[in-house]
Amino acid sequence: MTRRLRASRARERGASLVELMIALVVLSLGILAMARLFPAGTRSQLQTRMTTTASFYTQEKIEDLSRLPWGDASLTDGRHPAGVATENLGSSGAWHRFYNVTTMGVPLDNLKKVTVTVAWSFVGARQVQATTYLRR
Length: 136
Hints:
This protein is an alpha+beta fold. Helices cover 43% and strands 27% of the residues.
């Protein structure tokens, strides 16, 4: 009986220092792998926020142009502002907005196609475009 008692106590000694070190290394590797995901998540969240802001600026301009009368100078055919100029938006001027107006041909000559573009730079050039048709 004492032999059995000694043998069972020997098996119940607990974890050795080597086993604890291995467990710590495995745990550390898991934590480091998770930590590498945070920058990607932050970058994705920032990109989504910038796209949402650009969509807001696009919709804002479409609504402004929709309220104008048919013959308004802002609705003449061509790019507005003219040339390569853009309307800088946001506190840092990060977003650049312009729009194109095209009067449709017959039989749709009572329509103007308006395409608003908002562009910005974030890990490369990005842009949001929206098109609407205005009627006479």
